[in-house]
Give the backbone structure.
Amino acid sequence: MKLIIPDGYNVALDIKETEIGIKAVKDFFERELAKQLNLTRVSAPLFVKPETGLNDNLNGVERPVSFGVKEQNDAVVEIVHSLAKWKRQALKRYGFAEGEGLYTDMNAIRRDEDTDNIHSIFVDQWDWEKIISKSDRNVDTLKNIVRKVYKAIKNTEVYMAKQYDYIKEILPEDIFFITSQELEDLYPNQTPKERENIIAKEKGAVFIMQIGGVLASGERHDGRAPDYDDWKLNGDIIVYYPVLDIALELSSMGIRVDEDSLLEQLKISNCMERAQLPFQKALLNKELPYTVGGGIGQSRICMFYLRKAHIGEVQSSIWPQEVMEEAEKNNIPLL
């Protein structure tokens, strides 16, 4: 793990003050997001049964944390990677209508994550999902919802800048849209992460669309599971973060697959066997609502607004010993 030590980094808040700041960020942003998107908070599972097909298999190589349940003959359950699929099922089960949505606190363990200043094996995010009509499965709808999420992000920065003198507003008024292919065409000799850094630094805030499919170069901008986002109607909200001089992804979101795009993406990904799982089968049988949804990193959001150098300053996790020693030496207090 490489630890980035910002030049002249000063800790504006001690640990107790930081905890107060974390609560301020979460309370305000949560209310703002719910208001912008018409969302209701619900409870959500920490673990699911693998045979339901509800767990997010991310890039397909990450190993979920699993354990046996004693009272159920040691039946195996998995800690969720995200709630991308569960939310869609919940919208139907809980009786939500078109134009309404839900959000929840999602906690996950991603044991195969490569940790650094912005990555941890502990993942906490607001997972949200909203019902739309089939006719609204288009780019205009996606952009409209992205702008609402970004408004919640922008309004929270304005709020936090009023609470703390050291926090200055840095986000632009509007978010910039570009597809992953357009970005590759602009910077064909750079890696996807290098392209993100360039465009984020130039625009301040950007939504990179169409992530998951193969680009003209034969490479993917980034991996996406084939059975929740429609790769033609999804993307990432990324902002420039001057504390670390990097592009910081705050949210991954998109319009979800319908029966046609699900089959197409399962075929491309060579995992047609997933079509037989209960969740995927319900989708193919048109038994679930058409939706748009996403995840917004809680620790990432807190790190960004409080201008922290390491995600471990706003969440309690575990880190390599050498990282903890280096952080302490450079006045980066990990929780």
In short: The chain has a mean pLDDT of 92. The chain has nine helices and eleven strands. The first strand starts at residue 39 and ends at 41. The two ends are 18 Å apart (CA to CA).
